[in-house]
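Course assignment 3, question 2. Fill in each field.
Student: A.L.
Task: Predict the tertiary structure for the chain below.
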Amino acid sequence: MGPGGPGTDRPANGRALAGIARLGFVVGLPILVPLVIFLVEREGHPYARHQALQALFFDIVVGALLTVMWVVVVVLMGVVVGFCLLPIPILVHLGFWIYALVAAISCFSGQDVRTPMIAEWVDGM
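Answer field:
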């Protein structure tokens, strides 16, 4: 921990890049933003690279999950049950959006954000 508090030992531009990578999901550019930051920072800031890689895998996993959920809801709309299930993918998407926003804010302050299950996977790379 740096003398100014948690995360202050990380360079400001590394924290900014990590936060921007996490914001990709929030601003509607999932996968693209973290991928670009990861590729640009391959030899740069380890914190930014690690957070961008976590954000990239988060975006891929969440995108696949939401796609499956929406397909199921649309298919079930043919038998009216889908209309009852319509709030579920909307609320799940909102929950992931809030998580990504909180993670971005935490990255901007230099905190180590560890996405459950994804962080362990990224650590092994």
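Instructor remarks: The two ends are 24 Å apart (CA to CA). Residues 1-6 have pLDDT under 50 and may be disordered.
Grade: pending
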